[in-house]
Amino acid sequence: MTIALETQNLEKTFGGLRVTRDLSLKIEQGARHALIGPNGAGKTTVINQLTGVLKPNSGRILLEGQDIADLPVHKRVLRGLSRTFQINQLYPDLTPLETIGLAVSERLGHGGDWWRRMGTRSDVNGEIAELLTRFHLLDVMNEQTVTLPYGKQRLLEIAVAIAAKPRVLLLDEPAAGVPESERHDILAVVGSLPRDVTVLLIEHDMDLVFSFADRISVLVSGALLTEGPPEQVARDPQVKAVYLGEEAVNV
Amino acid sequence: MTASSDVGFHAQRQARWHYGEFAFWLVVLACGFLFPTRYLIMTDILRLALFAMSLDLILGYAGIVSLGHAAFFGVGAYAAGLLALHGIINEPVLALIVAGLAAMVLGFATSFLVIRGVDLTRLMVTLGIALLLEALAERFSNITGGTDGLQGIEMQPIFGEIPFDMFGKAGFFYSLAVLFVLFLFARRIVHSPFGLSLRAIKNNPLRAAAIGIPVNRRLIAIYTLAAFYAGIAGALFTQTTAIASLDVFAFERSADLMLVLVIGGTGYLYGGLVGAVVFRMLQELFSTITPQYWQFWIGLVLVVIVLVGRQRLHRWVLYVPNLVIKQVAGRKSVVAVPESDA
Amino acid sequence: EDSVKVGLILPMTGGQASTGKQIENAIKLYMQQKGDTVAGKKIEIILKDDAAIPDKTKTAAQELIVNDKVNFIAGFGVTPAALAAAPLATQAKIPEVVMAAGTSIITERSPYIVRTSFTLAQSSTIIADWAVKNGIKKVATLTSDYAPGNDALNFFKQNFTAGGGEVVEEVKTPLANPDFAPFLQRMKDAKPDAIFVFVPAGQGGNFMKQYAERGLDKAGIKVIGPGDVTDDDLLNNMGDAVLGTVTAHLYSAAHPSAMNKDFVAAYKKAFGNRPGFMAVSGYDGINLIYEALKKTGGDTNGDKLIEAMKGQKWESPRGPISIDPETRDIVQNIYIRKVEKVDGELYNVEFATFEAVKDLGKTKK
Amino acid sequence: MSDLLAIDALRAGYGEAVVLPKMSLSLAEGQVLALLGRNGTGKTTLINSIVGVTRRFSGTVALAGIDVTSLRPDQRARAGIGWVPQERNIFRSLTVEENMTAVAQPGPWTVEKVYEMFPRLKERRSNFGNQLSGGEQQMLAIGRALTLNPKVLLLDEPTEGLAPIIVEELLKAIGTITRAGGICSIIVEQNAQKILGLADRVVILERGTIVHDAPSAALKADPSVLERHLGVAGAAH
Amino acid sequence: MTAILTNLFDGVAYGMLLFVLACGLAVTLGLMNFVNLAHGAFAMAGGYVCMVLVNRMGWPFFAALPLAFVSSAAIGIALERTLYRHLYTRSHLDQVLFTIGLTFMSVAAVDYIQGSSRVFINLPAVLQGQFDVFGVGIGRYRLMIIVICGLLTIGLQMVLTKTRFGSRLRAAVDDPRAASGLGINVPQVFAFTFAFGCGLAGLGGALSAEILGLDPYFPLKFMIYFLIVVTVGGSSSITGPFLASLLLGIGDVAGKYYVPKMGPFVIYTMMIVILIWRPNGLFGRTAAR
Ligand SMILES: Nc1ncnc2c1ncn2[C@@H]1O[C@H](COP(=O)(O)OP(=O)(O)OP(=O)(O)O)[C@@H](O)[C@H]1O
Ligand SMILES: Nc1ncnc2c1ncn2[C@@H]1O[C@H](COP(=O)(O)OP(=O)(O)OP(=O)(O)O)[C@@H](O)[C@H]1O
Ligand SMILES: [Mg+2]
Ligand SMILES: [Mg+2]
């Protein structure tokens, strides 16, 4: 199996606090990998380093074998690393059509076009239409994002990440704020991605995690506690003690 | 209609010309024939409008605030003045472009200082740059004429054919032509993916980067372009007034500009044009009534504008045009109402 | 038509507003005293504010000429403003009466410009000569870094060094300068006999206050200069530290003529404070317009008016003055004055007179 | 029975929009009420209306027998309402500790006691609000509401983003606090299963109206109600 | 050596002059995040009140100073209750437009009432002149400004960091809705703080009049200086603007003394360099607002 995304001895401190400690993670290509751990364990911080929002103090980040630790955020996206945010990061004044349109244009390298008008490329239009349909956003495509219901916004958040056609997709609590009845829809969309797309999921909803992941890493205080297939992690007494508690987990 | 062509249709929605826009430009052109004695003030408004449009490009679209936009205006003004004074380039249109490019170079150089930081920082850094340039222009008085400004500028005819006249007629139509061409250019740009990406950056830079937009490069590009526009406005100023003096760099010029744009509304290109008209007319009106205390009344108007709310005012002001257009075209609101600002 | 229009362009707002106010007041006073008709024509003043910004001046002048069809343009608070209007005066062939701006070159920029204010060369050279004669050997200069300041500095230096004096320190302060402390400290450390000062009207108070605060007066360093530092407008507010300051200037509210006494009294009555030299320049400016009209019999042809103005001589509150027929610039007495207390108020008391001084900026060429 | 919280015919919403047409609800001391409902049915609006930060058209809210309808939100808070907003609304330029001390009122809940409940917060006590992880913010929001020493504790989706082990402890704690006396609680939850064990009573909203109000035991017995109103299989797990 | 010390003293004094002018703005802009460009107008009001009391009515200077504070604070609270409070939630650009409007009005109004000539406040003899300490000339008035500023800074910083009022204020600024729902009387906190900021402005106006002079254009002329101090200092504390004032004051004075030709360049260059180095100001909180 090839490794899609890998960190080597990643270190990150905030002031005196070591938030990522000598972290070496390997995520195989096509994996459905989950990253769990107590609050403040440093999961979001890891994602932020992977995507370039934060700079690690030391360590390497390899995307498909190439070191991307020094690339700026947007270059990593163009290399196929895309993410969603724990708290929605959308463009309040733009419409879903524009939001997704931008993401598609950037990926196809038309983002810098300053002379050709938006909406005049049929390949881009086709792709936008496809995404809007897939995420049930077609009916609201001309509404301002701020005015959309939360659920739609959450869908848009994920649609934007997928519009970048990532080879590795990082999902930070994608189900946050989404009601139980709709959680599985979101994961269904993610699940329907091509098998060679690698997905890393952060989530506190154990039902979701265990129904989705084929491999789980547990992060505690910035360091890797354990890693393995879901059954093994669910049974691990250490994981139970620091994270799962007594909750019954369906594996 | 398929979903794809539907998407294409809606994506181009904003880029299509509205009737209101045609009407707007026709009215502007008509003014040139209706008020032959007021060319000067109208030229002044056109210059200010162009200058405000330049600020709108960075403020309304990319969300970069600036209190030092006069820096580029000033460089354009002095460049045009020096070119004419020393007979380096005698043809005004060519000189205009060269002056714009000079401002653009400065814009590019300073853009690196401006893209960092929060609003307040940007305000102060841009302001500082403009003040520094003013001080420099004062210090190098052998080139700039110091506080006296450049003296003895004489403009050659446009294209060697049309001379600038004392009543400002040539100046007016010249300025109008320049403004219109640059407006078309700006309009094209803001409706391109590039323009849309600027709005995305203004809305949420973090997300913009996370979909692959090279944020800094885009900001530098638009800042540089805006500097070009401002430089052109400055050069127009020198060419139509035959004056270039230190106050082209003045803080007041940048501050007025901000007021113009805030009055007119940002992010729809017409804001600068509308604001320039409103602001100058008010100034003219009040300073005719009371040359000493006109600032009081301008101040009062600003306060009222804010308290009543720009949105509401726009609705009132555009009520009649929209009503007419609705009758004629059978469409909903056609004259754009600006979105909120940064 | 039986009205004559005068377009008055002044800085009514902004940092130079007090100049504009004084001139406007003086003109109002004059017209109250002398009536608003001359040679059968009614005089109509149209006031525009240019905030001392040249392009506004130019627009205002153009509008006045094209739309209001004025017969004179007048006022002009600062040099760039006066210069900006010059080509228009030439093109429109109407007189431009400069009532405030003081650099030498102005009148050379158009044959239609006349000036009733002053030039800095006039007072700066005179005070230099006076200093040389009165045993002041070493002078430090502090001048505002703009055209009038540089004029003042250069003319002073020229006469002072020619007379054997030495300029030991030369500092140019920025035009917008909130605090003189470091500059004054430099002056103090240079230990001159006197400081030659020119700062724009308005900043004189700041300068004098800080001069006293720093104890330069006690260190025996005198202040000399053109009279702008001790402008009557502000003088009374400056405190006793200014006592003994010697300046050369065209006007003092304490000028001991009957005409001046009446003028000062009337001005005070009407506007509540003392007139300064700007007020007098405005007063004389409107007088020149009246006299010219009288001479042409109400004819408003610009060339005729300018001809009529050339060589005019009259008694002004500041003393006898005239318009040089060649340069169209003012010829006036320059007085050496010392600040003294009179009836509990501070005044520039004149003690020497240099008569009929022309603008040396031009005569030297 | 003395009702600690009594809402009567409350009509509330935002701007011109009415979200709760006519809401009546009362809660006795020691009760834990679970508020369920799909997205956008008005759960948050109800909570916010009790706090007083929505627009009220008509109706009343009473706290411990005192009409607080005309009080400002801050007065209501001081009269005994503790609020954990859905968005958490941590004050970002205040430290963890200041977030609590800024609003604290005298009573049994002190900052120290909150630290006992969430040791994680103690470790991060001098971090600024905007430097906390999502879960830490949630803990702080809860701790902050507790230091107000409220009579009515309003928790809008408090378990969102918290680790399972913390959720367990938190829910237990809320039960203990409420039943220890003088307090009642309303908990908004997405996941019915999580709190059926804790709540005494379950209220389900649909388009701003109560469509189901019963003891939680009844729901446990009859999961079809959940299925009907929330579209989830009740006891499926 | 004495030259250096004298300049140092002058620099410190100039810095404190900047600070006394700007500290009110550090409160309204820095802490309340309200862009109050009319700050200078409140300063001017304080200055003129003090001037009228001292010069025209013969009050002692030290009695008039507190009244400068009080009257500006009173004007501040009146305006806050009627106008400003509608603007807290509005965009910064609206705030700029509104407060510039107010400034224009105040300029014209003062010009109308007091005339456009510059005035000064008559000082008591104790505050005039210099005294010598080991050859270093210490200006009495400047020394007083330094002392007042030092006390103000300490006092303000204590109030803001050590008291609950400070954190309640910051909470109210961060999220007024949540703050109100959690028991903070937001309008009251804002009104009080705003009035206090205006009072400080008034005090600053009265204190600076001796050196800068008072005229109707005061608010516009010095606006840039207030803003420089607050941005360079950073907006999260009072010590930030305090240290920024010191730095700028000393830099400016030294620059003007040693290289007078550089005149105005020093302060602007310092500002740009500092802001590029630290975009949130010397003591800005990263990523706040
Ligand atoms: N800018 C910062 N400065 C200081 N500490 C920070 C900063 N950002 C995050 N932290 C701390 O780093 C730790 C890790 O935060 P992170 O957001 O990565 O946690 P997490 O694993 O995503 O937690 P959760 O599950 O609660 O979202 C937390 O303790 C947080 O307080
Ligand atoms: N600030 C607001 N202005 C206008 N309408 C609003 C506002 N907030 C919420 N609404 C509307 O009020 C209705 C109820 O929203 P509310 O947030 O109370 O639902 P909820 O049950 O809490 O949903 P969720 O499960 O998503 O938290 C929704 O239709 C929503 O669109
Ligand atoms: Mg997280
Ligand atoms: Mg809710």
Fraction of residues in β-strands of chain A: 15-25%
**Helix fraction of chain A?**
25-40%
Mean pLDDT of chain B: 87
Q: What's the CATH H-level homologous superfamily of the domain at 3-89 and 164-250 in chain A?
A: P-loop containing nucleotide triphosphate hydrolases
- Which value, in Å, is the CA radius of gyration of chain A? 18 Å
How far from one another are the termini of chain A?
Answer: 24 Å
Low-confidence stretches of chain B: 330-342
Number of strand elements of chain B: 0
* Bound ligands, named by name, code or SMILES: adenosine-5'-triphosphate, magnesium ion
What is the CATH C-level name of the domain at 3-89 and 164-250 in chain A? Alpha Beta
- Topology as H/E string of chain B? HHHHHHHHHHHHHHHH
- Please compute the radius of gyration of chain B using only Cα atoms: 20 Å
Structural class of chain A: alpha/beta
Largest interface: A-B, 53 and 39 residues
GO cellular component, one term (chain B): plasma membrane
InterPro entries (chain B): ABC_transp_permease, LivM-like
Membrane topology (chain B): Multi-pass membrane protein
Protein name (chain B): Amino acid/amide ABC transporter membrane protein 2 (HAAT family)
What are the defining features of this structure?
heteropentamer, D: 237 residues, alpha/beta, Rossmann fold, 6-stranded mixed sheet, 4-stranded antiparallel sheet, 10 helices, 35% helix, 28% strand, E: 289 residues, mainly alpha, 12 helices, globular, binds adenosine-5'-triphosphate, binds magnesium ion, BCA_ABC_TP_C (chain A), ABC_AA/LPS_Transport (chain A), nucleotide-binding (chain A), ATP hydrolysis activity (chain A)
